[in-house]
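Why do we bother with holo predictions? Because pocket geometry can differ from the apo form. Keep that in mind while you read this record for 2-phosphoglycolic acid.
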Amino acid sequence: MKKIIAANWKMNKDRAQARATAEELAAGLSAGRASGRSVMVFPPFLAIAEVSKVLGGCADTVVGAQNFYPAESGAYTGEISLAMLADAGANWVLVGHSERRHVLHESDSLLAQKTQYALSRQFGVVFCIGETLEEREAGKLTDVLTRQISQGLSGVLDLSKSLLQEKLIIAYEPVWAIGTGKVAGEKEVLEAHALVKDVLAKQACDLSSLPVLYGGSVKPANAQALLALANVDGLLVGGASLEAKSFLNIINA
Ligand code: PGA
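The structure, written out:
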């Protein structure tokens, strides 16, 4: 399976900046250096159309959105629908990112609803999980990851397994490693990814073949070592994806 390298630009870049980064990225990707990788880019909403125009021609590259609301249309002030995202060129979404869980207080049940909603409407989902430092230190790693996976995926287990395999990716991102410069050590990544695979295997339909990405302070300097670890099927990159050069170095690691 090709390793998946995903860029989460978070709340950064206006349209011109996003287009410039996407153009540099497209030039780097079409130089052929990225063969063997699948690339995903999650720009802020207002830049999705620009970015998907630029990256649309790149092989193995998709554009997604960082959020959406699970309803068709209507009285949801400030929210955005999947149809609007599809119209702008996005066909993947992030669900359960730690900033949505901890800053915006999205609950396991809302995340389950969003995951089910997107997958049953042919959108792909990168479903993010991860423990806080407090939870890790209290010995709750297994409990937290088990709860986040079991509850988050509770609504999708009756969808076809082939759909889930094509459209569902898990991203393990320890909250204490996101944006802190503290990448999880080899031992921690191996342990958490094995645990995630184990929990996935125990779901009503065995989901252990879903790709599991690592995220949290991924940089060009540590990407290769992380990608070499067992059960690491790719990387979700925040800060180091904002510059095209740095992101291309991670793609080509
Ligand atoms: P970071 O963010 O690479 O800046 O740590 C990762 C993420 O939040 O997905």
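The chain has a mean pLDDT of 95.
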